[in-house]
Amino acid sequence: MKKRALCIMSGGMDSTLGAYMMKEQGYEIIALHFNYEQRTQKKELECFYKIAKALNVENPYVIDLDFFQQIGASALTDKTIDVPIGGLEEGVPVTYVPFRNGIFLSIAAAIAEKESASVICIGVVEEDSSGYPDCRESYIQSMQESINLGTKEETRIEIQMPLVHLQKSQIVQKALELDVPLALTWSCYKNEEKACGVCDSCRLRLRGFELANSSDPIEYE
To answer: Would you call 10 helix, strand, or coil by DSSP?
Structure first.
């Protein structure tokens, strides 16, 4: 049986590259996306479907999680909190969604066990991220241990995070090497038509393309 990797895919550049890296390693891709009432939910979902199609994924999973909006406490899910546009903040930024990756990985584990996937791929980036605690390598490793303790004995799942120690410029370079359709990806925290260019995510993305001596194919305001 062909080896299978469940890839958590936001529609963004990092998770898309992760999926393409799994494909390069010979895995059959199972694509998983979450709608969690984030500001750019419609655009991210649109990008996810296009990327899944480009990867020849037949039956992508889309899971709706409305409780993140009820919890709030994040500029991504609570529209009364402004998305910062002044550059990277010190500490954990207001765009952090409480325990998002822990919840995503728990649901991904259930699907991976059902689909007999040996790998879950998540596109976390530690060194060049926005300071989210649930993007740390040590945390993801602890989740792998917990998932394997809480699943069937014959289920052995490895969580791969191939981008965790890369800088954004290296991510851009690797994506270009693998012909990742970067024009289909979306990173902006604020807008769904043209990327704002000033939120943390846009700044990191644009800086990555600049350092990689390349041009970002998406449109900005």
So the answer is: coil
DSSP 81-98: SPPP-SSPPSSS-TTPPT
Each domain of the chain, given as residue ranges in start order, spans 4-167
Residues whose CB falls within 8 Å of the CB of residue 201, separated by 6 or more in sequence, listed in order? 12, 95, 130, 187, 188, 189
Report long-range pairs for 170-174 (Cβ below 8 Å, ≥24 apart).
170/212, 171/13, 171/14, 171/17, 171/125, 171/128, 171/208, 172/13, 172/208, 172/209, 172/211, 172/212, 172/214, 173/212, 173/214, 174/17, 174/21
pLDDT in tens, 183-208: 999 999 999 999 999 999 999 999 99
Q: Please state which architecture CATH assigns to domain 4-167.
A: 3-Layer(aba) Sandwich (3.40)
Nearest to 54 by CA among 157, 178, 144: 178
Residue 109: CB partners within 8 Å, gap ≥ 6?
A: 120, 147, 150, 151, 157
Cβ–Cβ < 8 Å for 113, 157? yes
